Amino acid sequence: QASSKIRNFSIIAHIDHGKSTLADRLIEHTGTLSARELKEQVLDSMDLERERGITIKLQAVRLKYKAADGEIYELNLIDTPGHVDFSYEVSRSLAACEGALLVVDAAQGIEAQTLANVYLALENNLEIIPVINKIDLPSAEPDRVKKEIEEIIGLDASDAILASAKSGQGVEEILEAIVNRVPPPQGDDSAPLKALIFDSKFDSYRGAIPYIRLFDGKVSKGTSIKMMSTGKIFEVIETGVFTPEMTPVQELKAGNVGYIAGSIKNVGDTRVGDTVTDARNSAPMPLPGYRKAVSMVFCGLYPVETSEYDRLKDALEKLQLNDASLMYENETSAALGFGFRCGFLGLLHMEIIQERLEREFGLNIITTAPSVVYKVNKADGEVIYIDNPALMPSAGEIASIEEPVVRATVMVPSEYVGAIMELNQEKRGTFVNMEYITETRVSLHYELPLSEIVYDYFDQLKSRTKGFASLDYALKGYKESDLIKLDIMLSGEIVDALSFIVHKDKAYPRGRKLVEKLRKLIPRQMFEVPIQAAIGTRVIARETIQAMRKDVLAKCYGGDISRKRKLLEKQKEGKKRMKQVGSVEIPQDAFMAVLKMD
Ligand code: GDP
Ligand code: MG
């Protein structure tokens, strides 16, 4: 039977409330790693994560803790990503646990993602231990936050732990609470193997390695395992635990958290949420909740230099090895040449991949504006899904277009309610309802087109509420809408990579603004370049880029040679991110211009 000395738990929190800092403290306090090792090993996992202060990838670590009762416990901390883009991953890692620490910033109180995460934890029947963090801050108001926890979430907060992940206050109490309040795993060692994949990693020697939580049964070297979603079978060559390095152990059994290696070549075969069973003695039913990652946002990625196409392809292949939710396929653009259409879980996921391509692989890429997936009901009865605006059929072939809508929750101090309503109005939102969660804070529920969230929603939300609003959203479904395709023409030619889908009411102002913006962004060429925005054959806006004066360099003749060199270098630098489209050079900014216009 599963060991009574095991506790599997997660930490859930709104971003910046101190989850990572607290995790580090727990690791340090249990002597799992020294402070120095901690810095080197845990935090260095991903530069990007560090810089942006977000948690991207799940990780697990086993803590050995000698409790007040004198017994030694194995505490498995399963980390969850802290962003809405990854809510499915969050839900699967929570499903691997029996309990969760709910960390709430003592000065900020409950935010939209605190709530979203709590709901996921409750759905998974977890024991929730409220931790009020940052009580060292002068602005900390633990009593107010306790009240919020009780009133908004409905949890008893009388025994909430007051902590400071910064100073270490409350850490011992947290560890005791994990031991005493989180139930030990239940499960049957002798039943057929049933293990949940909550993450996976690619290792160049051992292949794709699923991170698993065993619910029933055992697994060890030589076990023939079967992935229940695909039926694929692999032989296990190693089982191990996270200390936090991968450390081999003889066997994993019910209740354990660890990894298995088995010459699995492709991370696509180790899907988060899938159930691993024994091929010779299979569980009759997989664990509930599995679903395939769905891409919500798509964009085109093209090498600036055509010769870098193969390198870009290699890089995407490598990134996909570690990230089964990254989708890509070949795409050809009349304007940009050969590249890839890529699908992402959300905007943040997209930005992370773009940055990694540039930073880790040193690639120069052109990214087209992100698009959602439109459902097009054609006049002939066919239904198609379009993730690239350039491929939208002509108006005559379309009966109707549907777009993805989300159910969004915005939490703000009440003085910003007006600002949020205005923003959501502009974003074609439908008001659902509004609740006062305390006297001064409000939760607003809206239905919003996903495409409007992609278009500059976060920045607007933050700037209009001085950073006080928090957002959470989940896909609700498709809804018919009056959408049309807007094309951009340079020198009379449509640039397919600049086409976008827009609501009819916004087509004119957006087209107008975009051509104005493009006029400023596209550098002068040797000849005059007209820029036009068109719906079908109807031009709705036009601007002209004047021809370049030929004396840019002439000015420098006879003058300072270093000044001339600087000018040339500057031009070269600028060129890097330029794409030659027909006879016109277009900078990267132009492709993203459509995103920031309102
Ligand atoms: P996460 O996004 O939830 O992982 O939050 P982090 O652990 O990255 O913390 C966000 C910020 O809050 C960082 O600048 C931390 O140094 C700071 N922080 C975390 N815990 C505390 C605390 O107990 N007291 C204070 N004053 N700052 C804290
Ligand atoms: Mg973090």
Automatic annotation (TrEMBL):
Residues 4-186 form the Tr-type G domain. Gene3D superfamilies: 3.30.70.240, Elongation factor 4, C-terminal domain, Elongation Factor G (Translational Gtpase), domain 3, P-loop containing nucleotide triphosphate hydrolases, Translation factors. Keywords: Cell membrane, GTP-binding, Hydrolase, Membrane, Nucleotide-binding, Protein biosynthesis. It is an enzyme of class 3 (hydrolase). InterPro entries: EF-4 (IPR006297), EFG_III/V (IPR035647), EFG_V-like (IPR000640), EFTu-like_2 (IPR004161), G_TR_CS (IPR031157), LepA_C_sf (IPR038363), LepA_CTD (IPR013842), LepA_IV (IPR035654). One of its GO terms (molecular function) is ribosome binding. It is found in: Cell membrane. SMART domains: EFG_C. One of its GO terms (biological process) is positive regulation of translation. Coiled coil: none annotated. It is a peripheral membrane protein. Belongs to the GTP-binding elongation factor family. LepA subfamily. Required for accurate and efficient protein synthesis under certain stress conditions. May act as a fidelity factor of the translation reaction, by catalyzing a one-codon backward translocation of tRNAs on improperly translocated ribosomes. Back-translocation proceeds from a post-translocation (POST) complex to a pre-translocation (PRE) complex, thus giving elongation factor G a second chance to translocate the tRNAs correctly. Binds to ribosomes in a GTP-dependent manner. This is Elongation factor 4. It comes from Syntrophobotulus glycolicus (strain DSM 8271 / FlGlyR).
